[in-house]
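To: structure subgroup
Subject: Chain for Friday's discussion

All,

I'm putting the inputs and outputs inline so they're searchable in the archive.
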Amino acid sequence: MASFSNQFTATNLAASIPEIWTPIVLEQMFASTVASNFFLDLSEWTTEGGSLFDVANLYTNTFSVETQSTQGAQVTLQDPSQVKVQLAVNTHNYVAALAGDKDIAQLQKSFNFNVEYANQMRKTTMNALETNLFGLWSSLATNLITNSAAVFQDYEARQAISDIESQNLDDTEFGNLAFFLHPNVFWNQAAAITKYYQAYSLNSRDNSSIVESGTINGKPHSNGLRGEIYNIPIYVSTNVVDNLGGYRNLLAHKNAFGFGIQTPGGAPVRVQSEYLLENLGLLIVTDIVFGVVVVRDPFGVVITVSDSLTSA
């Protein structure tokens, strides 16, 4: 059989071999919206205008019991001063992009450029509210558990619960608590705690451990929910702050933080587009107007653990 050389190669034929664009788009992934789905939403009052919104705070100025040692004597009056929590709607975040006519005309048409990018811009803008809410960790001062040289342990969970329950949390309010852990803390630290996953520690009545029969409490992953510790749900988010070598995880009551959205148009994020003749292009802008505030400091616990150590 004859032996040939100099046969065509893909390099030789590169000018004739087409590239086919599929309709598949690799979209950016975002952290689940867990904070703004959980904490106190004051948007009902911010949508009508105004920049400062007050919540009366009575719990920091309490009454005390007096003793009537002399019957018939005049009673001693008390007048604890009221204070207020004030939400300032002072943040206006946006994402803007403009593409010229020539470039838009030459874009491949297998997917809608405007729609895909507007959706990514909207999610990026909404994520700003999440990061601001998690950033409130630095304003908490009452309950701080700091162990940035070690991994998350069951003791930190129990201490955090004790810190909040020591505020005389009403039993009916216990269902308004949640843990917020960074995924690295949940999967590489907390999920390695034996009592959270071994069968002997499962409560047959309420299944209050993380893992049961290979699932998360028999429930699918849903919007950041990953299970429960002591009947308190655990949410994971990459928006949990990593600061100075430690993840600033939280155990919080829903009234620990508050926020208000005041974006014109009524939606949390406004999406607008306009053709600009002076630019010969299409402008897309997404924006959000909001404010965040610590509402009840003692109802939040910062749990700082290592951002580099893992458990076997």
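Points worth raising on Friday:
Residues 36 and 182 are 16 Å apart (CA to CA).
The radius of gyration is 27 Å.

D.
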